[in-house]
């Protein structure tokens, strides 16, 4: 493997990839000028995953396998794990075909079903709000991490897209779209259609993953497909954010694991690479730690960003965060989503989009200060 890849996205491109874009342009995913130098990365890193290390007898993910820093969030994650199981019903309720079926049923049964659906949603909403409250009380989290966690939990209960995207996603609930602007996920550049177009593959990602599993496609190839789709969305986020083709230090690290080794090693490698990104941000801002352990920050300078990480392993995505302002901070598990669950496909895709958009905020805010890359990478999406 050996290198942080394009803008923090680490990708192990192999021969025989299912998409010609990946094989034809694999070199463009390696380390280049607007990422870190190869000298900063251990060339011996090769990351694998053991299926038994992350799946319990009940089929649920064991968060403790990600390392000691994850244990403090275990009780919180247990409380939200079940909530995601029923989110898919929201989309079904707004599916035109399902509405036609209901019209042929007994009106009383239809009314009863809708009342039960409303009660279920209210119950889930209360549970998620409780999880958010306890997450904040838990403490020790960066403010941006708390905001992203809240957006992830509320992603089926609040507006996150501009209303202009509604025509592109007619089966999604109206409540996900806003006419007021300033939604969490939106377009910033002139091409308003590009945002909805970039999002569509993420919303169908879980369905495709499920189909590949059913077809006995090897896990490594499935994870490669997941990584490629996330990489394309990261590229869109940089273009739309106005800093694609400029020299910048990423605030997002995406890591695709392989299927033949221990998960704790994956956690170790991903943590070290995220900490390396944090160190580069501190150095760029003149932040340093003296011999006594005191951190010196320019009071007139900007704060370094929260570093985000996405680990792709066993057809799942694990969202990590690291406070780059604190040299002694650990990498923490924020959330995880099972991409093999096709019934949660829309919500899994939205979750990935939320994290990627959150990670671009820092470089988007300083885009006018960034230098143009004189030797830009080949754009696989051009």
UniProtKB/TrEMBL annotation:
It comes from the Eukaryota. Residues 1-108 are annotated as: Disordered. It comes from Glarea lozoyensis (strain ATCC 74030 / MF5533). Residues 37-47, 67-86, 98-108 have a biased composition (Acidic residues). This is Uncharacterized protein. Residues 18-28 have a biased composition (Basic and acidic residues).
């Amino acid at each position: 493997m050996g290198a942080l890849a394009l803008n923090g996205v680490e990708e192990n491109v192999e021969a025989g990839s299912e998409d010609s874009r990946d094989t034809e342009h694999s070199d463009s995913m390696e380390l280049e000028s607007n990422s870190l130098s190869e000298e900063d990365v251990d060339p011996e890193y090769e990351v694998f995953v053991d299926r038994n290390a992350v799946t319990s007898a009940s089929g649920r993910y064991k968060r403790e396998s990600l390392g000691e820093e994850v244990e403090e969030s275990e009780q919180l994650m247990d409380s939200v794990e079940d909530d995601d199981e029923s989110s898919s019903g929201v989309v079904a309720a707004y599916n035109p075909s399902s509405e036609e079926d209901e019209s042929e049923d007994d009106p009383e049964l239809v009314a009863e079903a809708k009342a039960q659906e409303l009660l279920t949603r209210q119950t889930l909403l209360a549970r998620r709000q409780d999880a958010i409250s306890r997450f904040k009380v838990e403490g020790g989290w960066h403010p941006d991490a708390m905001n992203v966690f809240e957006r992830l939990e509320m992603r089926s209960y609040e507006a996150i897209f501009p209303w202009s995207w509604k025509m592109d996603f007619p089966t999604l609930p109206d409540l996900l779209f806003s006419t007021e602007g300033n939604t969490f996920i939106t377009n910033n550049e002139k091409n308003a259609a590009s945002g909805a177009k970039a999002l569509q593959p993420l919303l169908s990602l879980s369905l495709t993953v499920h189909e590949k599993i059913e077809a006995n496609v090897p896990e490594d190839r499935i994870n490669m497909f997941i990584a490629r789709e996330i990489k394309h969305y990261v590229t869109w986020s940089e273009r739309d954010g106005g800093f694609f083709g400029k020299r910048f230090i990423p605030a997002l690290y995406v890591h695709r694991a392989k299927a033949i080794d221990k998960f704790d090693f994956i956690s170790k490698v991903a943590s070290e690479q995220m900490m390396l990104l944090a160190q580069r941000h501190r150095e760029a801002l003149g932040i340093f730690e003296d011999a006594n352990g005191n951190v010196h920050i320019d009071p007139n300078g900007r704060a370094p960003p929260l570093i985000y990480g996405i680990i792709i392993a066993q057809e799942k995505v694990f969202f990590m965060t690291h406070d780059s302002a604190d040299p002694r901070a650990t990498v923490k598990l924020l959330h995880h989503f099972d991409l093999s669950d096709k019934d949660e496909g829309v919500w899994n895709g939205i979750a990935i989009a939320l994290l990627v958009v959150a990670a671009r905020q820092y470089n988007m805010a300083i885009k006018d200060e960034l230098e143009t890359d004189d030797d830009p990478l080949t754009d696989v999406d051009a």
